[in-house]
Amino acid sequence: MLSSMDKSGPFAGKLPRGKSLPIGDGGEDVWIDVIQKMDEVYAELVRSQTELEEKNVRLEEAHDFIGSVLAAMTDVVIVCDADGLIQQVNPALESAAGRRESELLGLPVTDIFDEASRAAVAGFLPELKNSGSVAQHDVCLAGPDQGNALVSVNCTPRRDSRGRLVGMVLVGRPIGELQRAYRELDAAHQKLTQTQQRMLVSEKMAALGRLVAGVAHELNNPISFVFGNMYALKRYGEALTRYLAACDEGGSREEMEELRKQLKIDRVLHDIGPLVDGTLEGAERVRDIVQDLRRFSSNQEETLETFNVTRLVRTAADWVIKTQRVKPSVRLDIPDKLEIRGRKGQLHQILVNLVQNAADMLEGNPGGEIVISGEKVDGEVVIRVVDNGPGIPPDRIDKIFEPFFTTKPIGEGTGLGLYVSYNMAVKQGGDLTAANRPEGGAEFTVRVPFDDNAPA
Predict the structure, then answer these.
(1) Quick one: where's region Disordered (predicted)?
(2) What pLDDT digit, counting tens, does each position of 325-365 carry?
(3) Helix H segments across 249-307?
(4) C-alpha to C-alpha distance for 298 and 200, rounded to whole angstroms
(5) How far is CA 273 from CA 229, 269, 277, 385, in A?
(6) Domain total of the chain
(7) Is residue 9 part of a domain?
(8) Can you tell me the distance from the alpha carbon of 350 to that of 393, in angstroms, rounded to the nearest whole number?
């Protein structure tokens, strides 16, 4: 009869018993429309059921995910409604409180804290309603067997989709865990500080080892001068002793004049003063070198002292250059007297490291030149060490102050010289920078503050 009876769908081909469609008045079209609508409704129901099942799966996955996150947290988590009743807790809270979640649900949140903490916890919700935030509090959870667990709690508001306050979330970290973390952090910091100190001493001794030959030569000059003067003074002393003994014996005037000429007493008297002064000067020079060495190698905290930067620059350059096989020329563009108040030993080591670095860059270059300049600028002493070597590779210039970074072959450099120098400059409130010169070569600039009361 009807072609619609062949259509697929849950209601296709089904007519009420004893009923027939009124063909003549358009009943067939109406019935076809009804069946189509019922098919659409059924399809919609199937689609809705499928979407609902998918949402349920996603909801279960989200629930499992949140549950696994809460279970993995070492911090305690408490979720409350707008009346301060517990809605959810995590396993860390169950462990700290000694009670299962099923025992805690619906209880006032204040019940799981000790008496001294309940007033502070009770004020969380009113404070959230008034200001929207709660400052961190240290409170005690009432643990099992009367044992209380001190926790540092943060409280944040919980809002619905329309922004209304529907509760709060308390997240607390056990203070004992924080203290343990702080102790571990402090131990790590102390270990790092000790390591840095050992690195500093190691680099100092490595630099000192490189400078031994130059320092020995530096010491040899005044010591030789002192020895020579002392031998001369010994001869002069013997002559004076002999002359005075003759005077005591009462020799004639002519005999004494002859002996005076023979012993060259007038020359002895003329030379003895300069010889003593020269000997003292040589001894003082030895003393100064030894003091510089002690200051250079010491790992003790330095005190501020007034010193001449120009002399320090000369000493640092002499120590380094005398150890080089091929000695570059050194030119100083610095006032004869540039006195500041600062930490002499640390600035000395910085300069030794910078001159050594420049000398290394010029190794094997017979035309190598190092120019060291210095001046006072805006409360700082600025010292520049410039060389005419190949410069710093552009891809490495940002790494040269990193520890253990070196361009030298293995075994020929520690990679700590510039790192230690940079940290020494910063520790004094200054800075150390590096740049390539447009005309070639590298330029290192060290800046350290000086006391304004130091003599100019």
Answers:
(1) 1-20
(2) 788 999 999 998 898 888 888 888 889 889 988 988 888 78
(3) 253-263, 265-297
(4) 10
(5) 11, 7, 6, 41
(6) 3
(7) yes
(8) 22
